[in-house]
Specification:
The chain is an alpha+beta fold. Helices cover about 25% and strands about 30% of the residues. It contains seven helices and 16 strands. It is globular. It binds pyridoxal-5'-phosphate (PLP) and 2-OXO-4-methylpentanoic acid (COI). The site of 2-OXO-4-methylpentanoic acid has 7 residues, from loops.
Length: about 300
């Protein structure tokens, strides 16, 4: 059955945010959202753009009990010509399908959802903010909603895209963020779900995040889950350093999220004659470099976090 998109526009548009400097991150939502259902026997169906609003799900839904959820994050920006552009959305949907495979959730028909996303952003174009440092954060997500308490692969799922006009992720804007090296909890191990973008990874990170915030840090820097020695990534961004004139970042090892911003920065650096290294970086090496003055720069990179100095 061919998928068709139906559009039901809101009859009660909300007022647009008046002060873009107060947007914050992920708190304001546009007028519409995209919704699509999946059923094991039928596949994806009932694709529609509808007014943004609450969902109704069974209290027995798989997502509520076993974390059957994956998500993505990308942004729509106004470029210098005033056009609205998406940054590498194909990469997000490709990664989402890898996450789906890892979590036993259905893969997306990428061309169809890309087109649906463009139609949604066009419909809510007035919600894309204009000020420097703002953008429309796009959050696609899939969750299993089977009414069945057994632990099993989803037989029913829903995919949605919601839009959130946003400012900077960190409350202090582009001021350098303080990051705490976490040496108790671990985020992921190889063979686990670290390289998938699933809600559970973030749920498991919250205790460390709370502890870091209590000590005045914005987020934690995760170490590898086995030796607790090698640097992996930060709560919501990949990490890069400049040590002794050379840019380096932890290599993708199966437990780190393969960030699209990370990949784009590495591609851009290589296209500009730099030779960034993707390798294992131990916390001892980092501390030594900080102490002997060869640690020149540290920054995180991610869609929400953009390029944030550390
Ligand atoms: N690492 C984690 C844990 C993240 O949540 C994110 C954000 O998406 C990133 C890295 C950066 O990925 P991307 O550049 O694709 O946004
Ligand atoms: C993103 O940068 O898109 C993220 O998903 C990070 C965070 C908001 C969880």
């Amino acid at each position: 059955m061919a998928l068709e998109l139906t559009i039901c526009k809101t009859e009660n548009p909300k007022p647009l945010p008046t002060d873009e400097s107060k947007l914050g991150f992920g708190r304001v939502f546009s007028d519409h959202m995209f919704v699509m259902d999946w059923d094991k026997d039928v596949g994806w169906h009932d694709a529609k753009i509808v007014p943004y609003g609450n969902l109704s799900i069974s209290p027995a839904s798989t997502v509520l009990h076993y974390g059957a959820e994956i998500f993505e994050g990308l942004k729509a920006y106004r470029n210098v010509n005033g056009q609205i552009v998406l940054f590498r959305p194909d990469q997000n949907f490709a990664r989402m399908n890898r996450s789906a495979d890892r979590m036993g959730l259905p893969e997306l028909p990428v061309d169809f959802v890309l087109d649906a996303l463009k139609q949604l952003v066009r419909l809510d174009a007035d919600w894309v903010p204009h000020s420097e440092g703002t953008s429309m954060y796009v959050r696609p997500f899939t969750f299993g909603d089977d009414e069945h308490l057994g632990v099993h692969g989803a037989a029913h799922a829903r995919f949605l895209i919601i839009l959130s006009p946003s400012g900077s992720y960190y409350p202090n804007g582009m001021a350098p963020v303080d990051i705490m090296i976490e040496d108790e909890d671990v985020r992921a191990v190889r063979g686990g779900t670290g390289e998938a973008k699933c809600g559970g990874n973030y749920g498991a990170s919250i205790r460390a995040g709370i502890r870091a915030e209590e000590k005045g840090y914005a987020q934690v820097l995760w170490l590898d889950g086995v030796e607790r020695r090698y640097i992996e990534e930060v709560g919501a961004m990949n990490i890069m350093f400049k040590i002794n004139g050379k840019i380096c970042t932890p290599m993708l090892n199966g437990s780190i999220l393969p960030g699209i911003t990370r990949k784009s920065i590495l591609e851009w650096l290589r296209a500009n004659g730099e030779e960034p290294e993707e390798r294992r970086i131990s916390v001892d090496e980092l501390i030594e470099a900080a102490e002997n003055g060869t640690l020149e720069e540290a920054w995180g990179c991610g869609t929400a976090a953009v390029v944030s100095p550390v």
